Structure prediction request, 250 residues.
Amino acid sequence: MTDTTAVTAGRTRLQPRSRLRRRTVGRGIGLPSGRAALGALMVSASVVGLYNASVRASAHPQATYLVAAHDLPPGHTLVADDLRTASLDLSPTLAGRAFGNPQSIVGASTLGPVAAGELLQAGALLRNEGGSSGRELSLPIDPSRAVAGALRAGERIDLIATTGSGPDSVTDLVVRHVLLVGVDHGGTTLSSKATMTLTLSLNSEAETVAVARALSTAQLLVVRSPAEPPTETPTEIPTETLRPMAASAS
Prediction:
């Protein structure tokens, strides 16, 4: 074995080659393969795509509501040209006070100034049904029995009441195609279920009495009515099962 020379404190001495520290050069960290890089790029692209789709969905709400087409002064009677629709994302509470059908508020009067583009809400308008007595009555109801709570002021509804249970129960048509002038989503409490309050505009004393009686004695169900009034009574429902309570109350 060949010796090597080491210099220590000015003196020279030989060291065996076997005592020298050996240095081992390890393998460096390699770059990811082309397949791994492509996979990472595809995952990143899918995440970005999902995010963009979510943003687009939230930026373009599907529900449309009525807003003022231009500035409206207090006491102004609304006509069709005063209204336009806008796609808005409203909370259930605010949506219940807004309108989607122009016919529901044409002829109503503004209670205060309304700016162009401002959402038209029930509390800012005085509705005039023209020829209707305009009797307003509010009733609490579980949202699951009122089109899952998806009702808005200005829509028309039918009110159905069921008394009794089992084969002895009786279902009555209380009122038909009445105007819904207010929807209040009251929320929930620790001791009660979710409830909402519907305010109806009733056309006669008989309708008012019928609804009041059903409210205190029966289980109610709200049905969304077509925008146009029905032309005839459905023939497939037996008259002994579905009876008009308003007629019997008169």
